[in-house]
Write a structure and sequence with these properties.
The structure holds two protein chains of two kinds. By secondary structure, chain A is mainly α. Chain A is built from four helices and three strands. The two termini of chain A are 29 Å apart. Classes of the chains: A mainly alpha, B mainly alpha. The interface between A and B is large, with 39 and 45 residues.
Chain lengths: 107, 169
């Protein structure tokens, strides 16, 4: 499997949407909560990432009956979910490798 | 502060503002209302927001001007044109040759009607230094923006297969 890496803010945004569809402010708070307050996204950074993810079909807007322009909800597409799974797999592999290497060093 | 925020949003391209402007303002308003009363938290929040807006506007303009040909940020996830490093060197060599030719021609003309160039060597050195500095800055910026490695997504078999189909299986 080829490896790739997402930046931490993008990964956290995707993880936030993996659980459930969310709107912008909910994503900000969830990212902050997931990272233990370490990653604080600004609205500029968040919407820059969302625009990219929308452009590439990783996320999409949820169709609503009465859509409000100032409070849209986003969700992962199947493509986004698949790529997120691949990233998680890559990280799992990396963690396993790190554990092995550090264990050898200690031994 | 909302007024300042809206004013800063004007730095974004019109299409971006139309798509996300109201939403961003709304999220900013919500985040602002949930701020703790402590002054350091407020300073940190406003600093983060305004820096984020400025850099976001810059990126949005880069995207609008250069997308999709040239990658300008680490969030980029589409197929990208790779600028060979050797091209920079070749461009410098060609540029030096042109400067040399112009300077030589000027010096020949200068024998009869007075030289425009103060010194051939100093002009060439200055030009080359300028070009090297500019090239180093550009390469440095591109490198720092792409260190996330997301551009490598284009090599993923799954990514390639699903391109254009919006990822629906």
């Amino acid at each position: 499997m080829e490896t790739f890496a997402l930046s931490e803010p993008v990964l956290l945004v995707l993880l936030s949407l993996a659980e459930q569809p969310r709107h912008g402010y909910s994503m900000l708070k969830d990212v902050e909560s997931m990272s233990g307050g370490r990653v604080l996204l600004s609205t500029g950074t968040l919407y820059g990432a969302l625009q990219r993810l929308l452009d590439h079909g990783w996320i999409e807007r949820v169709e609503e009956d009465n859509p409000a322009r100032d409070r849209r909800t986003y969700k992962l597409t199947s493509r986004g979910r698949r790529n997120l799974q691949m990233e998680i797999e890559r990280m799992r592999h990396l963690t396993k490798l790190a554990a092995l290497r550090t264990a050898r060093k200690e031994a | 502060m909302i007024t300042v925020y809206c004013w800063l949003l004007c730095l974004y391209p019109g299409s971006y503002r139309h798509e996300f402007g109201e939403e961003m303002t709304s999220v900013f308003r919500e985040a602002r209302s949930a701020l703790p009363p402590a002054l350091p938290a407020k300073i940190s929040f406003y600093g983060r927001e305004f820096c984020g807006l400025l850099s976001g506007a810059l990126y949005a303009h880069f995207d609008r001007l250069f997308d999709p040909a040239i990658p300008f940020r680490r969030l980029d996830m589409r197929s990208q044109f790779r600028f060979p490093r050797s091209t920079v060197f070749l461009m410098l060599v060609i540029f030096a040759g042109i400067v040399l030719t112009i300077a030589k021609a000027s010096s020949i003309v200068g024998d009869t009607s007075g030289s425009v160039w103060p010194s051939l060597v100093s002009v060439m050195v200055l030009m080359l230094l300028g070009m090297c500095t500019a090239a180093a800055v550009v390469v440095g910026i591109l490198h720092s923006l792409r260190r996330g490695g997301i551009h490598r997504l284009e090599n993923l078999p799954g990514h390639m297969d699903s391109a254009g189909s919006n990822g629906e299986r």
